[in-house]
Amino acid sequence: MRWEYERPERDLFLVDGKTAWFYVPADHTVTRVPAKQSDDLRTPLALLAGQMKISRICSRVEPAADERPLRGGNVVLRCKVRGEKKSTGMADQPENTLGAADADNDVVFFEIAPDTGELARLVVRQPGGVEVEFRFEDWRFDPPIPETMFRFDPPAGVAIVNGELPERKTQGN
Length: 173
Hints:
The chain is mainly beta. Helices cover 5% and strands 35% of the residues. The chain contains 2 helices and 10 strands, in the order ββββααββββββ. The longest helix has 4 residues. The two termini are 36 Å apart.
């Protein structure tokens, strides 16, 4: 998978099957992470690659009446992210209930074009007011693209940062 961003700054996110690369030309750095560890929800990589079902990410999905779509006629759905159970002071609130507790958890909004079923926008809201938005248009499936577009060779003078995540410790270790 290859994503090229133009805004807010030019950068590249590329997964070659083994490694996920995040290159920021202005910083003269590239971060590499083993592809299996690049499951960060800020990049809906697994969904777009068809390797993840929404039901595995979301404990509940429902219409987001309080969110306006960018395009008239589109529908916005709200996803409560699975496993995001944090202390909210509401001991009896079920994990899959949406509401005030969302301020302590990631919430994902999907904007869908109902006539085609295509994803038009994805917004991830995280605790602390962090919001990441992806907009999609002109979907093309299986276009002919040279294999070289999915290989990353760091340019000369670019620092390579090893972004491997620490291994998760099991209880008792």
